[in-house]
Amino acid sequence: MKDYKRYLITSALPYANGPVHLGHLAGVYVPADIYVRYLRQRGRDVLFICGSDEHGVPITIKARKEGITPQDVVDRYHTLNKKAFADFGITFDIYSRTSNKVHHQTASEFFETLYDKGEFIEKTSKQYYDTEAKQFLADRYITGTCPKCHKEGAYGDQCEACGTSLNATDLINPKSALSGSVPELRDTLHWFLPLDKYEPWLKQWILEENKHWKSNVYGQCKSWIDAGLQPRAVSRDLDWGIPIPKRIKGSDGKVLYVWFDAPIGYISATKELTPDWEKYWKSDDTRLIHFIGKDNIVFHCIIFPAMLKAEGSYILPENIPANEFLNLEGDKISTSRNWAVWLHEYLEDFPGKQDVLRYVLCANAPEAKDNDFTWKDFQARNNNELVAILGNFVNRALVLTQKNCNGKVPAPGALNDFDKQTIAEMPKIKDQIESSLENFRLREALKFAMDFARLGNKYLADTEPWKLIKTVPERVNTILNISLQITANLSAIIESFLPDTAAKIRKMLNIDAITWENAYKTDNLKAGHQLGEPALLFDKIEDSQIEFQVEKLQKTKTANQALCAPVEPQKPNISFDDFSKMDIRVGTILAAEKVAKTQKLVKLTIDTGIDKRTVVSGIAEYYEPEKIIGQQVCILVNLEPRKIKGIDSQGMILMAEDANGKLCFAAPIDKTGNGSGVK
Predict the structure, then answer these.
(1) CATH 3.40.50.300 matches 6-109+256-328
(2) 0.85 exceeded by pTM
(3) CATH code, residues 118-237
């Protein structure tokens, strides 16, 4: 391998329309952080770059649904995710955002450079336009029937029912998600990056020069290239994003496509971090590595390199060790279905257990194929590996030394053959870990790191110093010295994988960090050195903790099933006159109490704007009376009164009921005056 002077490590910019979940961590951020920590241990000059990807249609959709601005959305999730990463110990040198001024300027300049060099194709094409909303529609704002599986509700870019990638014009009976109207095709001007122009170069660069890339990455790239590359639009009609420079004719109402501006975020974040940014992006002795998930392979291996090649002054990535997907309890992680374990919630439910999650996610990393996270496996790996192997060895070595040597490192005596064999294994294991990390086989590297702890456990189990204390004390000193040297080396060996645990070991040993180069020696601890107090590195995770997490997921699954359950068929039509006889008003609940000797009934006092009246409603299973006081409701006020459990009920509040019988209030989104009519 080339001898690089510096390393530039990027991890995919998480999209700022939701929190970070375990799939993101396993695929991108834990592997990147492990590798960066390893490089720093070796004294490398390294920058670790990340930030929020804050443009694009999904953010505008979320903002529209919530009745807030796109900026409100990205501000919320940038703050949440930045804190979650920091709390989890991911060691970014900078966590920037693509809404920053420096990014807008950098991306605009990048576009202008390619425009001025004549790298773009300017082309007019037909796209759907919403005449009521008076705007062109992004693919996600168009829905219709999938031409392949014929399911309704397919988006203009993909059918989520069958997974087929689509063009908006493929949809049958397309409708605007903004107004519900039928959109019309209109001409619109855009700029395209001619990927086909770079196809011969990409074939040589990827398929010939980068055969060392991971097989899943290389295979996906080959598939794309073999299918033939096509020009790709770098602009779109949208009001949220980086505007196309005004000096360019036809730029009004157009922004950079998010796929074009997001990877430039790596460059702008580096600019923001250091005035020496160019030596990291434009020097051949810098090694650029992108950590990403498999959904980003084409963008980082084909499109972004083509952009950099077209610009002409930037280095290209030397490796892109993309991982596959992590599933959750046998099902694909889905943000929209809330089928995920969110990082910020994990940190609340398992305080102080960042390293446990790092360990499990690395041990199960989806490096070559999709893998699965289960809470039972999480518990088993903690209890059977971290507690029983790593924690057990370190605790035994420290406690035995405290009891028999007053907490001081004993001087070793003569070594026997078993001592020498054990010591000889340490540099071998260290070399195996190093080779695995350098080649991005992190699961394998973690296994070897645990072999270091297994080596110590086996050494103590086979030598049994507790049996020799009274008869051969000098032999005990030798055994404990070697065990403590293994422990000291172990603190360096596991540093990149389990940084909090490594720090705890160093505290118990009363030492500073040991360099990677010295993480096999038997003189890192000098005889007579005073150790700190022993403490447990890990504790067992109880069944009740796991059951709570499984139940939480089961509730999510039940809720999703209810949303997807078939609805009741439509009732027979009624006339408008029949409907107009119903007097439905907005009211506010003033008081609420359970009806005695019933499970479902609640007695409500409601201000209808006409009067204050009593209504009995069967909502006690879903709402606690004291928590719904002040809730606005829709109430049918001219329903004939009836006596329920001896109480005169004067009306009926309107509730939505799903297929499982769960009830929720049908009420105005915005607060309105009591007595307002529902039309």
Answers:
(1) no
(2) no
(3) 2.170.220.10
